Give the backbone structure.
Amino acid sequence: MFSKILIANRGEIACRIIQTAHRMGIRCVAVYSDADANARHVAMADEAFHIGPAPSSESYLRAEKIIEIAKESGAQAIHPGYGFLSENTGFAEACEANDLVFIGPPSSAIAAMGSKSAAKAIMEKAGVPLVPGYHGDDQSPETLRAEAEKCGFPLLLKAVAGGGGKGMRVVENMGEFDDALAAAKREAKNAFGNPDMLIERYLTQPRHVEIQVFCDQDGKGVYLAERDCSVQRRHQKVLEEAPAPGLSEDTRKAMGEAAVRAAQAIDYVGAGTVEFLYDVDGSFFFMEMNTRLQVEHPVTEMVTGQDLVEWQLKIAWGEPLPLAQSEVKTRGHALEARIYAEDPDHDFLPATGHLRYLSTPDESAHVRVDTGVTEGDDISIHYDPMIAKLIVWDETRDQAINRMVQALENYRIAGVKTNIRFLHALADAQPFREEDLTTGFIDTHRDLLFPKSKLDTHKALVLAAGFVLEERKSSEPASTDPWSPFGRRNSWRMNSEYAQPLQLQVGEEIHDLKILERDDRYQVFVGDSVYNLTARLDDDYLQAVINGHRISVHGNLYKDQLVLFYEGDTFQCSVYRETYGFEDMSGEGSLEAPMNGAIVAVQAKVGDKVIAGQTLVIMEAMKMEHAIKAPADGVVSEIFFGEGDQVSEGAELIAIEVSEEEAE
């Protein structure tokens, strides 16, 4: 077995590989960018080498530099993880040319599957069922329009070299085709260096079911169950599970055998995933093959009891498959939720920020957390905004869902926007429990997945007041007389009863509270209501009784910014001080950047008349394009940034003189 390997990746997957390698007695070499100097994967590795500035193009995508470090460190093999160079043919070839084992498939297999159109031709020859569409070499707009008409609508445009939802557009009719094609080509060229497209019939109620396959160097292959990854946003997976609900044993077997045929058709070696679209009538169609370990591999590990990274290492060393097909067994049900720094309330825009508070559920045989970050880390614009993967297992699907709901309630983050509340609503949604699964699940059940807060506003304000007051008490100097009022910061007055004021700001609204402190309780006045409150704060855990209702929450108070966590929900407010001087920094007709990112295109000039909803700026953040649209009809009066500029969240991009009719 290898004695030392280099991991050409970062974040949770690098940490995940290190864990297994160390268990097997293998030393690990990490690489890191400027942004990752203090990252978790660097601390876990036996040694680490600086590789360049923060942008991935100047660090984690520098194949020659990685090869150089591997040779310098004495590593015998390179594990690429997923993303970055994991499916780069040239990198795999460079490893082979430098006598380094690439822990993945041969470069020829990556090349075969790297082009979605070429892959479909290979699959067709191997007898793997395909979705109707076009995957030819002629990329002229005229040919693509003709093939689109032939395929029928709705259809899906996909980058031939793509993945992760990039360079992908759903087109409902020919009127949308040209604009969608231009946008998809531009995004594909930026992300993959290849603008070529393929066309597929867009199934209206499909499920995304994929098969985990493994092949050894003798050409033998097995499939390790299947995963359902239907719940997606922007064509990117959000929640995965294994096994896929509702599949018959015959379908499961047919799909697994087709996946192995697909792998063997390209002389595959190692871990791979064959992805299928599964239709309501039970038919399934080849979609693509990912020639690497998948983000969602832990759900397969949880139901099979196998360590897939260990399998990768053994097969790369030349050992045979650890199990024959007849020996592969599954037990129970597993789910994985991807916890992202993003804002579900604003179309899942990527978020950046400082993880000032991070508390995760306790890990056990039922709960697993795969992460590459710790409290105090920053989520930057340079890399994918995934914070962690939360994986749960139990005997049945319903029990596993209950585990997931509970675990999400115990996952608490402050300092950056996350999708935890959304994931909690999703996992607990009745349609999900009832296996109503399609790739359009989120759009179909949007009302269920964006529920109102579970906490009544007044009750949340009372809890916030209790947290703030108890936090203040904990920082008071110790007094020799615990009953003395003189050491307390509660606005106590001699010979009078004084209700101390507390202003809490929620969004743009400021709430005036008044609080009377008794020896063992508070009276909190909110508007015309009075609440009797007893509260006890233990670190971040507040136990309270409000008018006889016992309720407990966790919270984090940092520089007057308070976040309360309750049953998967959050309540955020700040202690308002008039000296803050809040001001509206932008006019009614301004366009602001919704996140940190780069300007890809400005589609307007000063003096242009624009209409509400017209795309004026295209931004790129976390390798995804986002269209910034005019908020109202008007005339462009000023443009503040140009193509290629880096901008921060909230920066004014374009000023618009709003027409009088619109202003009225």
User: Anything to note?
Assistant: Residues 486 and 492 are 8 Å apart (CA to CA). The longest helix spans residues 174-192. Confidence is low (pLDDT under 50) at residues 579-588.
